[in-house]
Amino acid sequence: MSDATMKFFIHTTGCKANQWDSYVIGARLKEKGFDPAPLTDANVVIVNACTLTNGAERDARRFINRTRAMNSKAVIIIGGCHGQTYPDNALGADVVLGHEEKFRVHEFLAKKGTFVGNTRAFVMEEGPVSGIPAGRTRVFVKVQDGCDNFCAYCVVPFARGKPRSRPVEEILLIMKRLREQGIKEVVLTGIELASFHDPSSGMDLKGLLKALEVEDTPPRVRISSIDPLAVDDEFIDLVACSAKIARSLHIPLQSGCDAVLERMGRKYSAEFAEELLHKVRGRIEGVGIGLDVIVGFPGETEDLFEDTRQFIEKSDIYYLHVFPFSAREGTRAASWTDDVSESNKRERVRALRKLDASKRRSFYGRFLGTTGLIIPEGKRYHGSYMRGYTDNYLPVYIGFQKALENNLVKVRINEIKDDLLIGEPL
């Protein structure tokens, strides 16, 4: 394949860290003179695939099959978390790349087979500081990667390797360039953000947040998923008093039942989590709190699930992300008896998603008649609206005005219509 004529398409599944990784892969290919193209025109299709659940694996396989039907001449490369963790399962791709190899994808375009390093000691890839794709209102910046927690259900430590962090100096340079390019919001992402430590100075996550508060950055900085054990008093006060850090926290709770938390290998109790949520709500005005929850974990009886449901019902939160347990080869839980039927898992997912819908409506209702700042996206929604998020992650829909795209716009939230928060610019 001639480099001069190569066109590529990147398909990304999974977390915000994967979104960043795909951005880096694309930026490096463009530096080599390669051009992005639609799926049907690409010479090479790169699947940066999540492997967190069986569903993620199924979705990647389906995409590869669909790509074969739409573009039979393309070389298909699967990389990232799936390639690193399950190198012998190509899902129908021509090339399998590991975590580090995917950032050098141009080296493997003329090859077929599996190229995956047998290690967990990865280096942090250098982040590009220019060439942000047009039309972005927010950009994900990966400041940390890897995890050593080895929770019983989680394959991520195998997929992402040992914890490592991006140097603060590099993060500040990226932030400065993003602001110069007109980006209004950055989401700090990582696999285990709580383990962030600058390689040179040892500065922790709270130190990084303090630095971002006074340095040249986009006006809004959002924190992605954060372990509950990292949300101490100092962290809460940083968010509460910040002029930049968004008032939204996404916490991977996983369960509200002590017995299940202990079996999962989580290092906190339901009582600790309850007190933490109460403290966060009381000290960060208007904060939007989201929780990850896994249902159907081995050993989770109906009574234990009910403990989690009641925990969430009484918690003053904004939303839930609910996942049925999915046994992944290599994890401790994969060797345990999966004693919750698939039908029971689906019922529990439905029960919590119903609770999620109720929590969202209640949270929306608190802000009717209030004002906030949103950053409208350029896309049309429901025919005549554009959407932007407040700092506490409320999606507010306003009448479409192209001139408002990617600007900080003050809005009044007027009504809830068909489960949408409708507002107007002020």
- Uncertain spans: none
Helical content band: 25-40%
Distance between the termini: 54 Å
Largest sheet: 6 strands, parallel
The mean pLDDT is 94
Query: How does the overall form come out from the CA principal axes?
Result: globular
Radius of gyration: 22 Å
**Structural class category:** alpha/beta
- The succession of helices and strands, N to C, reads EHEEHEHEEEEHEHEHEHEHHEHEHEEEEE
Summed up, the helix count is 11
> What strand order characterises the main sheet?
2-1-3-4-5-6
Tally of strands: 19
Q: What proportion of the residues form beta strands (DSSP E)?
A: 15-25%
Overall description:
With 426 residues, this protein is an alpha/beta fold. It is 31% helix and 22% strand. It has helices at 16-31, 54-70, 81-85, 156-160, 168-180, 205-214, 233-241, 258-264, 270-283, 302-314, 342-366, and strands spanning 7-12, 35-36, 44-48, 75-79, 95-97, 113-115, 138-142, 144-145, 164-165, 185-189, 220-223, 248-254, 288-295, 319-324, 371-374, 385-389, 395-399, 409-417, 420-425. The strands form 5 sheets. It has a 6-stranded parallel β-sheet, with helices on both faces. A 5-stranded mixed β-sheet has the order 15-18-19-17-16, with no helix packed on it. Helix 10 links the parallel strand 13 (288-295) and strand 14 (319-324). Helix 10 packs parallel to helix 11. The N and C termini lie far apart (54 Å).
